[in-house]
Amino acid sequence: MSSIPIPKHPVIVGVAPGQPRHVVEQAAHFAARFGTELVCVFVDQSRLPLKEKADGSVVSAPIDPDSYDAAETTFDTGLAAELEQLLQGSGVSWRTLVLAGEVSAALGRLADRLDASMIVVGTHERSVGGSVQEFFNRSVATHLSHRQIRPVVVIPAHAPGIGSDLPRLEAW
User: Fold this and answer.
1) What does each C-alpha distance from 139 to 97, 135, 146 come to in angstroms?
2) Pick the residue with more confidence: 21 or 57?
3) In terms of pLDDT, which residue wins out, 146 or 95?
4) 143/10: higher pLDDT
5) What are phi and psi of 32, to 5 degrees?
6) Are 38 and 10 in contact (CB under 8 A)?
């Protein structure tokens, strides 16, 4: 048993390859402000959760039993390397988890299990593919906001700013 205390009420952030860096940076900022751990979570939608463990991880099986690949249950090494580079020197304790199933349900169950202080998600990129995904799956943030008792923080994929087509409202 470790003598290092596990911070309570972690900040959970949904992560995916190609996601804008500022989503994780903002989540790390929240974790630092709250003095807690950052849990970076990738949800594999091609797998079904079978059993949840105390640390929040899951035992899962592929939706298609003919496509079994044990590597699917491990955190993507490229994404882990990006997170390592991004969070290096942040002073925030962090870890990764792979969950399975529908994204908002998986993040919600983990938040309940870990008694998270908040869930941080990013918006989809503006693209036809992102719009189609949003239409059929609905927004992860929308699902979470209707099902959670804890705060759900949504970080825009592209915040209005220099070079943005969107108007930026200045503080008065």
Assistant:
1) 21, 8, 11
2) 21
3) 95
4) 10
5) -65, -45
6) yes
CA distance 1 to 107: 27
3 state SS of 28 = helix
Which residue shows structure tokens 């799956």? Answer: 137
Rounded CA separation 45/78 (Å): 18
pLDDT, residue 94, reads 96
Nearest CA to 86 out of 42, 22, 34, 33 is that of 22
Grade residue 143 by pLDDT with cuts at 50, 70 and 90. low
pLDDT of 29 higher than 90:
yes
DSSP character string of 101-125: SSHHHHHHHHHHHHT-SEEEEEPPP
Q: Please report the domains of the chain, with CATH numbers, ordered by start residue.
A: 11-49+74-155 (3.40.50.620)
Instruction: Calculate the dihedral angle through the C-alpha atoms of 13, 132, 49, 47, rounding to the nearest 10 degrees.
Output: -110
> 89: burial class by Cβ within 10 Å (0-12, 13-18, 19+)?
exposed
Looking at residue 131, what is its pLDDT? 47
67 CA to centre of own chain: 25
